[in-house]
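Notes from the 1:1 (GR / supervisor)

We went over the backlog. Supervisor wanted to see one worked example end to end before approving the batch request, so GR pasted a single chain during the call. The sequence is below; no edits were made to it. Supervisor asked that the structure be written out right there so they could see what the output format looks like.
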Amino acid sequence: MNDIVFYSNDDVFSIANYTTVVQVVPHYHSEFEIYYLLKGNCRYLIDKSIYELSEGDLCIIPPGTIHNTRYEKEDNHKRMLISFPENYLPDSLREAISKIYFHPNSKITQSKIKEIFDSIDDEYTHPDHFSKYAIQNKIHELILLILRNDISADSPTSESLLVKQAITFIKGNYASNITAEQTAKFCFVSREHLTRTLKRETGFSFKEFLTFYRLKKAEAILKSNPKERIIDVALQCGFNDSNYFSKVYKQKYSCSPSAVKKSNQHPIL
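Structure output shown during the call:
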């Protein structure tokens, strides 16, 4: 089943329902995403925590939150993804649900959650002029159900605890010239164990994750303060060479930092 996208004047809603074994690299986006695992097992990195998902588990990823899934190649998976902009939710719901990343399968909510997803599936499979609004109401209903029955628990394995510690260190020190050795020392493990675990759990090497996070911070600065000089943005985000920064930024986002600055500058009237 292909993605279905509803467009209105200022928002986009999309949903996908398919089977996959594709390994997704860590990424983030500007919309909320709800991930509902219908079949199989996977590991889900969200921010700094890793969750072990099985059939019926659900994850909520707020905008701007780093996340990715890791599947066993021999497994067969089926998942449903719902993406929607922040303005789909009232402020109170948006603030509350942004604090919950994981909703495990529960006897209290499992039948109702399935019913809601089945209803959403029916709306976009057989849409009419009112389907967008019906789906929006169903999303509100789903969010309220999760909030009222929040039993989420972050119980990381020893490996995912190590990843959480490493990401915490990177997020706190990305602007400095940090190394894998320093991060491993912070986590009380060897460099080899740290880098091996990071690669296995996130799909990134230490250097790749550090560069990814630095670019994420740089993107935010360029969009929020386009008057900043590129060399200053690079230095704020841990890049000592502005030419290298521009190169890796363009590789990641398919546009140069100067183009981002220009697109976010507004003329003085």
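Supervisor's comment: Residues 42 and 72 are 7 Å apart (CA to CA).
Batch request approved.
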